[in-house]
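testing teh design pipeline on a random one, pls ignore if ur not involved
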């Protein structure tokens, strides 16, 4: 299981079927290493903020990072805004026929696996386009956007993220100092409102843009799943279209965009109309069309040629961004046979019973941590769905009255064949299906012929039972079928390898195994054993005896950004640099130094280029210092001071900042590091303020922690409040066993992230970070915070000192003795301590 946040090296990447994608990955990788060379200041600032600053409890996946980087690289850096130019530069072997690409504007297709966060990339693209248009002269991008969903199910999901600017307020998308410039209004299709002159996001279902004939009645089914597109296209809601087209700029973002693959389809024609009418407005047309889908394939199976990002399902499984799909092994189903009967429940009984049995195992396990697993049965038709529901209700008490069955008639391709349903009933079903993950929702299973294609993005499906005999003409792909169960329940818990069981008839399994051609590796299991992970939860019987209470103290270090206004040149250390002389077209060997460890991380030879102007260099220096010291909104204050220091103090003589020799020297890593160190040290002394620590008498109790799942090592310990001790490594298992057997230890706890005990500290780079120690130990002699990790880096000493400081404050304010103790593995092995007091007397001096 790889780290989904870590930058992927070129070697070892899964090869895409698209030669363009493979070439682009290499180009973007090199561009990233050069700190986004040739990008605008706006772009660099956003990329640095998104991916280089530490955001509390949030980090973008590498797949999301690479997606937005690729768009920016193509659009801004390379200026490639049509497929032919992209093909000519990146398909050097000319394996793709460019004539196969239908496009009317700058179109970029993002193939991103279900659950990998396409919506996050959309939001990144919107923010980049908006601020680029706002801040960069002659920007070709847009401040107005139309975000199109294929049906109401997808619309509702997007609405949860975008309505009232929710995603822009909750995610670290906008640098704090830029928030006042963000003036974007989100207009929903059912809430027609006046547009904002500064920026708008129109979120609409695609069929709202189709022609609606005068005699055509409202159709709730079509609203629910989207109708089969026709060839004709006109504007149905002329007010909405007129408002969209009234803007001078526009970007189009299509979610689940595999629907856009045929020139005869209405969705495609809608984009054509938007482009042609926008071109009449601004002589340019739509700024860009961004298409997002997990399955950018034609019905023939071939991939859209315009794909520029390919994050496959195989990679998403490997990175643990989605659940790991498990198929039954041969032994589990070798005796399964279909019974010749027209009752679907009896016909498919072996597979249905196995699916329920697996679901029951998941329910027994996950209910202990407050999660509700969902069983999803894909029936052949509505009659079969009703028969299966009745069978489940009659034979399984834990499912009686808890099955959601959607009896809407569709044909084998998933399209509507008959519509005679009640609007209010359908709305209730849609709401129940959308919120099925919630413990307040009564349903534990869904039996349906729908919900197969997209949009039903629930997280708690743990078992899929497939009974549909898919035909060759069915417009459904295996990715879409298992995609309904791939989203993780707890995306932040990378120590839990989540699973989804895929059970079905031989025809269904053969259909699913087509994914193996795309490098998806299916594991198999006996289906009789419980899931291959443990659940960790509080055992109430232990709480009174073994609970540990941690005093809640106010922070000892706070940052007062307003103090930066007191910084003057006289308070900056004078580290004089001698001027250098450079030859024109000089070849340089540039060594990249890790700012934290000071170690060499890369070396690159290239021809030295002159920076464009002194303003951009000073601006770059200022932004980096503010980012490193976590001070936002202070650019205007620091910029003139940075300019004057470099001009008057940094070198061995006063310099002209317009001198190309000086600009070249300012590009040197050693010059940059000198300036960063001087300013960071001075700013931290001013802005990081120590304050008196106080206690309000409140305590954080280990027993308040939520339950969680764990795929790593565990230890069955009694003298702690969890049922199991979740350990990060084997040494922690051995240390927990030592604590368990030490007579002088009254109670202990592993400080997992669900306990939430953390202490702020000042990192080596001057930023505020949080330290999570490993163990808490209660003895007759007092309380101990214990660290067992042996990795010694520049941060460790700072963590150690801060934890000692915290223990002194806790002891003073509570009257209870707290001490910090470090027990490294080498010492633990070497000295064979007999009990905890022995460790304290030996290592606690």
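output:
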């Amino acid at each position: 299981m790889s780290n989904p946040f870590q930058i992927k090296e070129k070697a070892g990447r899964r090869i895409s079927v698209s030669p363009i994608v493979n070439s682009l990955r290499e180009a973007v990788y090199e561009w990233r290493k050069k700190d986004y060379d040739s990008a605008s200041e706006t772009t660099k600032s956003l990329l640095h903020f998104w991916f280089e600053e530490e955001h509390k409890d949030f980090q973008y996946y590498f797949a999301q990072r690479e997606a937005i980087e690729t768009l920016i690289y193509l659009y801004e850096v390379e200026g490639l805004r049509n497929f032919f130019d992209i093909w000519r530069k990146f398909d050097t072997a000319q394996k793709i026929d460019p004539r196969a690409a239908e496009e009317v504007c700058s179109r970029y297709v993002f193939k991103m696996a279900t659950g990998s966060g396409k919506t996050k990339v959309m939001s990144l693209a919107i923010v980049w386009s908006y601020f680029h248009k706002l801040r960069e002269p002659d920007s070709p991008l847009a401040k107005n956007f139309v975000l199109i969903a294929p049906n109401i199910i997808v619309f509702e999901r997007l609405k949860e993220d975008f309505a009232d600017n929710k995603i822009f307020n909750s995610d670290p998308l906008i640098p704090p100092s830029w928030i006042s410039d963000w003036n974007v209004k989100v207009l929903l299709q059912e809430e027609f409102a006046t547009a904002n002159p500064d920026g708008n996001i129109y979120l609409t279902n695609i069929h709202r843009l189709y022609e609606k004939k005068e005699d055509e009645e409202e159709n709730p089914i079509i609203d629910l799943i989207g109708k089969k597109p026709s060839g004709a296209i006109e504007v149905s809601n002329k007010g909405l279209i007129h408002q969209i087209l009234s803007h001078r700029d526009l970007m189009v973002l299509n979610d689940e965009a595999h629907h856009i693959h045929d020139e005869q389809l209405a969705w495609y024609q809608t984009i054509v109309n938007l482009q042609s009418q926008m071109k009449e407005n601004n002589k340019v047309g739509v700024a860009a069309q961004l298409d997002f889908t997990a399955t950018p394939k034609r019905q023939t199976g071939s991939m859209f040629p315009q794909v520029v990002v390919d994050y496959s399902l195989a990679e998403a499984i490997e990175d643990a961004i989605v659940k790991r799909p498990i198929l039954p092994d041969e032994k589990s189903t070798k005796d399964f046979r279909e019974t010749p009967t027209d009752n679907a429940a009896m016909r498919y009984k072996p597979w249905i019973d196995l699916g329920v049995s697996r679901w029951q195992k998941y329910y027994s396990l996950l209910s202990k941590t407050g999660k509700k697993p969902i069983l999803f049965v894909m029936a052949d038709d509505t009659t079969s769905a009703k028969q299966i529901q009745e069978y489940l209700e009659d034979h399984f008490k834990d499912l009686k009255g808890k099955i959601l069955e959607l009896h809407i008639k569709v044909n084998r391709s998933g399209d509507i064949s008959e519509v005679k349903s009640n609007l209010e009933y359908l709305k209730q079903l849609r709401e129940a299906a959308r919120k099925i993950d919630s413990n307040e929702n009564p349903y534990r299973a869904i039996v349906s012929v729908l919900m197969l294609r997209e949009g039903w993005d629930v997280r708690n499906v743990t078992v899929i039972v497939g009974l549909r005999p898919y035909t060759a003409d069915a417009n459904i792909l295996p990715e879409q079928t298992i995609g309904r169960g791939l989203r993780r329940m707890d995306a932040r818990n990378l120590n839990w390898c989540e699973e989804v069981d895929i059970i079905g008839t031989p025809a269904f399994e053969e259909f699913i195994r087509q994914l193996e051609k795309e490098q998806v590796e299916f594991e198999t299991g006996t289906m009789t054993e419980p899931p291959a992970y443990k659940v960790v939860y509080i055992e109430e019987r232990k709480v009174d005896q073994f609970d540990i209470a941690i005093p809640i103290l106010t922070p000892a270090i706070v940052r007062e950004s307003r103090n930066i206004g007191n910084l003057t040149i006289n308070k900056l250390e004078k580290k004089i640099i001698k001027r250098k002389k450079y030859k024109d077209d000089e070849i340089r060997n540039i060594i990249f130094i890790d700012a934290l460890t000071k170690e060499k991380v890369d070396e690159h030879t290239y021809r030295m280029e002159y920076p464009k102007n002194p303003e951009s260099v000073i601006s770059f220096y200022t932004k980096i210092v503010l980012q490193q010291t976590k001070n936002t909104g202070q650019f205007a204050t620091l910029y003139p001071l940075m300019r004057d220091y470099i001009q008057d103090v940094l070198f061995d003589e006063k310099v002209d900042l317009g001198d190309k020799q000086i600009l070249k020297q300012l590009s040197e890593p050693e010059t940059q590091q000198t300036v960063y160190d001087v300013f960071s040290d001075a700013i931290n002394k001013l802005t990081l303020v120590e304050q008196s620590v106080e206690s309000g008498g409140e305590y954080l109790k280990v027993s308040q922690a939520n339950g969680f799942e764990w795929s790593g090592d565990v230890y069955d310990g009694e003298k702690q409040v969890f049922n199991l001790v979740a350990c990060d490594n084997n040494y922690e298992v051995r240390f927990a066993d030592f604590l368990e057997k030490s007579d002088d230890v009254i109670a202990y706890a592993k400080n997992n992230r669900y306990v939430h005990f953390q202490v702020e500290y000042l990192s080596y780079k001057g930023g505020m970070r949080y330290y999570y120690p490993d163990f808490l130990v209660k003895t007759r002699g007092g309380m101990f915070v214990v660290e067992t990790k042996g990795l010694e880096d520049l941060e460790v000493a700072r963590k150690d000192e801060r934890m000692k400081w915290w223990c002194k404050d806790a002891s003073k304010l509570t009257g209870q003795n707290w001490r910090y103790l470090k027990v490294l593995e080498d010492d633990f092995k070497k000295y064979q301590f007999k009990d905890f007091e022995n460790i304290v007397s030996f290592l606690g001096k």
